[in-house]
Amino acid sequence: MALWNRIQQLEPVYRQKVHELYDRDEFPMEVRHYLAPWIESQTWDHAAQDQNQAVLLFQVLLENLDNQYSRFVQEGREESFLLQCNFRRFKHNFQRYQEEPTTLASIILWFLRKEKEILDTVELSQQVQTLQVQQTSMDTDHQRNLQRRVEDIQNKVQVMDHTIKCLEEQQDEFDFKYQTHQMEGTIHEADKILQQMLNRLDHSRKSLLLALRELLTLVEEVTSLFVEEELVGWSRRQQKACIGAPEDTSLLVLEEWMTALAQALFQVKSFLMKLDELSGKVTYEKDPVLAHNLYLKQRTDNLLTRLLKSAFVVESQPTMPQGKGPLVLRTGIQFSVKTRLLVKIPELNHEMKVTVTVDKYRRFNILGTNTKALNMTESMNGGFVADFRHLTLREKKFGAGGRSSTDLSLSVTEELHIINFETEFKLHDLSVKLETCSLPVVIISNSSQQQSAWASVLWFNMLCNDAKNVLFFAGSVQAPWSQLAEMLSWQFLSVAGRGLDADQLDMIANKLFGKSTVNITMFDHVAENNFTFWVWFDGILGLVKTFLAEIWKDGSVIGFVSKAREKSLLKRKQDGTFLVRFSESFKDGGVTFSWAETDANGLVRVRSVQPFTRTDLTQIPFVEIIRNFQILEVGNVPENPLRFLYPGIPKDSAFGKYYTEKSGEQSPYFKYIKTKLMFVSKE
User: Cys-Cys link to 101, which of 54, 157, 655, 673 (CB 3.0-4.6 A)?
Assistant: First the structure.
């Protein structure tokens, strides 16, 4: 199907994107619509590079505009009159490209590519939606299954509550008749009737005990699913979310389910107590309550204990303000952490005290309020939480070095520490000590260690599922490239809304010596240009987060591209085509642009400017540098060589929405750029 026909069949939300695309004067939508078959059949990419081809297509375009104008005249309708006026104006506007037909070809090519991008986005969205529907269907089916099992348990408990009441009435009836016959001295005459009633009572007790055993088996199965699958899956998602992955770490559904299970088990405990009470009033030889009740009580308590122990979690991992991410803490700087009990018992609100401690190689004192009560008021969603917001670590000194005698030969930024939390659950006759711990944290003493500490956090949570493996870095640490690439992409996705594509990851892989297994030594220890790969990558990440987030997110920045590939891309493009890439030689991140330029001998060469650093971008937005950049060379009038963002997008179309001043107004940064940033280097 023709491109324009497909565009017209899009859903309203995507058609609006097309309208926004054509909401400019370079190429009117009416021309695109009425000349669609001819426009789509031409080789605009060739015309953008070839002057003769561009001249030919320019002339044919004007002829087609005349022909379409004549058709409107012949139709004679009112709307045709308006189109006549418009097409006359369109032709007049296009004639300004008579001396530069390649520019018009590039503009038309850009619009066609943008249309294709919209269609590709639609297609990708449909594919993703299909996959998400399949995955969501699987997730939904799994959740529905768990929900049904929890509801089944709740229903069985309700039925059992009714059964207990019926059993009590049945026993009362037997006891009343027994006592009556005993008082009247007719016990022997009624022996047969009483025995029948006792047999029925015995059968009811046995049936109830069997139902309780089956209920506990069902609870045990569901508890195992929660503990061994749901909570393990949540813990892994939380690990990945800590290092930038877009994971769902909500606990609301788990909390609802685990609270329901706990309530069911506490009701079972009350049923067993009731059976003890009934058996104390009426018992007999081979009473099944005496034989089985103790076992069922122990089993119920064991299930409750397992459920409660697993329900105590760290909802928000230790984080200090202004840090690179969670799990890096600095002595003397406040941090926060939040624990949560996924079993909500209103009677225990503000009754359970949670205490914080920290352990391992170096010893620390925790300053601040290190004991808080679990409560339902500090959480936005009503969770049963203890939110520690103002904790601080202070290191205990061990001799001159400040390290304990148990230290291994690990650097400070590779030492992993666990923050522990303890509380006690007490309700009725049940008392359970609850413990949980944070993911391993790296504790530093000055800000210069933060970058390396964050690298350790990334590697641990990328590779290790054992949250207590504090000796992770004592051995050789390696990662498959596919796993490392995904983690690096998450860093950009989390700070600027777009991850890394395959080409960008290829460049990074080559910088890390290939696509096989990567050792952490290559990542954060081996120095190139006097700094490591991670220092370079993290410097770029900070630059993007602070200064380039918008143009990174919209795809205007290629960023990670080698100089060799840069030349390969640009040498096939028309003069003035440029791309934006990151510098490979600046420690704290640098961004530059390179463009194609034809010299006097007809050879295309690629020119670049010295990279712009954090200092430059603090004073001038990068898009304003691109907008106003000029080359100042002897014998030439200053000019801006940047005309088309790779692969061929008119510069103002790509960056215009980010300009400080609107089109036609001079940038307030122009004078500064003119006097300060007029340098060019040849490559």
Answer: 54
3-state secondary structure of 578: strand
Pairing of β 328-330 and β 442-444: parallel
pLDDT at position 405 over 50: no
Q: Are the beta carbons of 586 and 547 closer than 8 angstroms? A: no
Q: Report the 10 Å Cβ neighbour count for 161.
A: 13
Which spans in 497-548 are helix H?
A: 502-511, 520-524, 533-543
Section 419-447 average pLDDT: 94
Question: What would the DSSP string read from start to end of 63-102?
Answer: HHHHHHHHHHHHH--HHHHHHHHHHHHHHHHHGGGTT-HH
How sure is the predictor about 48, in pLDDT bands with cuts at 50, 70 and 90? confident
pLDDT at 402 over 80: no
Helix, coil or strand: residue 638: coil
Closest C-alpha to 653, from 22, 209, 231, 18: 22
The phi and psi torsions of 576 (rounded to 5 degrees) equal 90, -5
Q: How many CB atoms lie within 10 A of CB 507?
A: 20
| Tokens at 159, concatenated | 């039925």
Q: Which residues of 103-114 are buried (b: 16+ CB within 10 A; e: fewer)?
A: bbbbbbbbbbbb
Question: What's the pLDDT score for residue 403?
Answer: 52
Q: Residue 326: is the preceding peptide bond cis (ω within 30°)?
A: no
502-507: Cβ within 8 A, 24+ apart: 503/558, 503/560, 503/561, 504/558, 504/559, 504/560, 504/561, 505/560, 507/560, 507/561, 507/562, 507/565
For residues 322 and 344, is the Cβ–Cβ distance under 8 A?
A: no
Distance, C-alpha 617 to centroid of its chain: 28
Q: Cα separations (Å) of 412 from 65, 347, 387?
A: 72, 44, 28
The alpha carbon of residue 660 and the mean position of all alpha carbons in its chain are separated, in whole angstroms, by 31
The span from the CA of 37 to the CA of 47, in Å, is 17
Q: What is the pLDDT of residue 503?
A: 85
Rounded distance between C-alpha atoms, residue 676 and residue 278, angstroms: 93
Element (H, E) at 7: helix 3-8
Helix (H, G, I), strand (E, B) or coil at 357: strand
* CA–CA separation, 119 and 128 (whole Å): 14
Residue 493 CA, chain-centre distance (Å), reads 8
- The mean predicted confidence, pLDDT, of the chain is 86
User: Tokens for 502?
Assistant: 């395959």
Tokens of residue 127, six digits: 């594919």
What is the reported pTM? 0.75
Of 478, 468, 540, nearest in space to 512 by CA: 478
Query: SS3 letters for 419-460?
Result: EEEEEEEEECCEEEEEEEECCCEEEECCHHHHHHHHHHHHHH
